[in-house]
Each structure stands twice: as C-alpha cells, then as structure tokens.
Amino acid sequence: MSADVRKDWDTYFMDIAYMVSTRSRCSRRHVGAVLVQGKKLLGTAYNGAPSGVPDCSEAGCMITEEYEVVHHDGHEEMVKKQRCVRTIHAEQNLLLFTDRIDREGSSVYVTDQPCWTCANMLANSGIVEIVYHRPYPKDADKVRAMMEEKGIAFRMLETYHPPKETLMDVKN
Q: How far apart are CA 128 and CA 123, in angstroms?
C-alpha cells in the first residue's frame, strides 16, 4: 500500500485486532477483539488465562472434548469439538473490561468468527455489529442464524489481509 493511500476503517480496526492478538500466549490460536463506536476505539482484548494464573504456554492447554448433534442433508451426525478451557476468549475479555454504556450501539472487530458462547454473550451486550476475518466453521451456521434473529450485523472481511507480523499457524 502506498503512503498516499489511506486504509479504510474496516482494515484499520481489523489491523488493530490482529495486533492485539499478538499479546495472546495461546498455542492453538491468537485472537484479538476491538470495541469501536463510530470511528472511536473504546477497548481491546485478547484470549488468554485469567490475570495472575499460569497460561497455556506455562501450564499446557486444558483441553475438553464436547459432542454435538449436527444436521446435514436430512441426517444427524455426531461431531466432536475440542476446546481449551484454560483460556478466556478475546470477546469475553472485551466484555469484562468495557462498560455496557460504551457497548450500546457499538461494533466489535474480532480476528475470528465468535464461537457459540461468545456469540451469545455479544448478542446480549448492546453491540449492533460484529466484523470478523477468519471463519470458525464449528459454530458458523447457528451463530449466523442467531445474529440474524437478533438484528446484529454480522460481516466477514473476506478480502482482508492481516499484517504479516501478526500471523501464526492456526490449529482448529
């Protein structure tokens, strides 16, 4: 990008979310989230263990397995999901460290599509838009349906390219 071309707002805020994600010490996925009202940045957060508690890089991941029935083409399929429960998700930390009054009518930029739990929390937080970059197929359909039902704009930035210094190998 040349010096005379200004980034659009989506790129600007998603770049910030990716930079925030570099604070994460999770070995499976670095996630960053940014709260924005209009063009004003109100808060940032990333995924990690609670403050003062050893994180995954120090104590190892705390993986739990869950099973869910998924309907595909008229038949049911049992799907196994693995999640680390040591880590607080970036969206959850964003909600913990921002005020409800600031969230009312705001947008959340997050590097990854929210999981079901985070989507539920965001749906109840007062925000009106979620913008994300990387898909999270495990919960995608039900999250998208809930956002539509709640009237929350839910957009994926498909042509976005994160700053190269923020990239890591993502483990699903």
A: 8
pLDDT greater than 80 at residue 4? no
CA distances from 25 to 13, 107, 114, 125 (A): 21, 25, 19, 26
Which residues carry out catalysis?
A: 91
Q: Three-state SS string across the chain, please?
A: CCCCCCCCHHHHHHHHHHHHHCCCCCCCCCCEEEEEECCEEEEEEECECCCCCCCHHHHCCCEEEEEEEEEECCEEEEEEEEEECCCECHHHHHHHCCCHHHHCCCEEEEEECCCHHHHHHHHCCCCCEEEEEECCCCCHHHHHHHHHHHCCEEEECCCCCCCHHHCCCCCC
CB 48 within 8 A of CB 61: no
In tens, the pLDDT along 14-50 reads 999 999 999 998 888 899 999 999 999 999 999 998 9
Q: What is the torsional sign of CA 121, 154, 70, 111?
A: negative
According to DSSP, the β-strands at 129-134 and 153-156 are parallel
